[in-house]
Each structure stands twice: as structure tokens, then as C-alpha cells.
Amino acid sequence: MVVVVIIAVMSVAVSLSLGGNADRNARLQANRFMAVVNEVRDEAIIAGGSYTLTVEEKSRTYSFSAARQQGNTTPGDALFKPRTLDAEINVKWEVFEVFDGDQDAEPKVLISSLGEITPFELHLGGDEKTYTVFLNQDGELERRDRNRGL
Fold first, then answer.
1. Is the dihedral of CA 134, 137, 138, 142 positive or negative?
2. For a surface tag, which of 19, 34, 138, 139 has the fewest beta carbons within 10 Å of its beta carbon?
């Protein structure tokens, strides 16, 4: 009887540690995304250049590139390498300012040499929670957590 109780307790502990893995990964990916965007913002200010951020929902990737052909980004530059989000995470990308001529193109966010960023929201959903990365009224990145999936 004691062995059965121990096995039951261990199986509950294992199922609890495995459950919510998608939520944890979504939160981790949201934090990483915020950190990388802030690093690119710092680079834009220091280098005096502008960069664009593109998120592709279907392939779950995001990447940065020079807004103009500045020659500042190279394929080997770790900061500007394309990054892939986990397959278990639901991704929804919204850009709130679309530039003239970009209506049919992929939505892009501009990170200017002044540190300004085009308003956007990136929703990363796990099993039970959704983490939204957005620009607050002060122009700083912020994360909001909700108990609903996408």
C-alpha cells in the first residue's frame, strides 16, 4: 500500500512539472524578445542607424535588418540573427502604424536612431496563458500576462 501511495505522489509531481511547459516557454520567449529588442534599440542609438523588426507568424521567427543599406548588419552578427520561437507557442503579431507603400508587405517595426519604436503587440500564447509584449505610453517595452490562450 505504501509503495502505491509513493508511486501516485511521484506521478502527480511529474505531471505537475511537465504541465504548463508551453506557458513557461511562452513567458521565457517573451522575456527574450524584449531583451533582444532593447539591445537592438541600444545599438540603433549608439550606431546612429535605424533597424526594422519583422515577425513571421507562420514560421514563428523574428529578425532585424538595417532600415537602409548601412552595412551595419552582417550575417555573422549574433544580435541580428533570425530567431525561432518554440513550435508549441501560438504567435500573433500586430503593427499599429503601417508606412505608405507597406500595406501589402509584411508588417515591420521601425527602431529609429533616436530609440523610438513603431507601436506593436506580439502575443505569445501557451496552453493557459498569453504573454503580450507591447510599447507602453512612455515608449518602453512592457509585458502583460493573461490567463487566456490565443
1. negative
2. 138
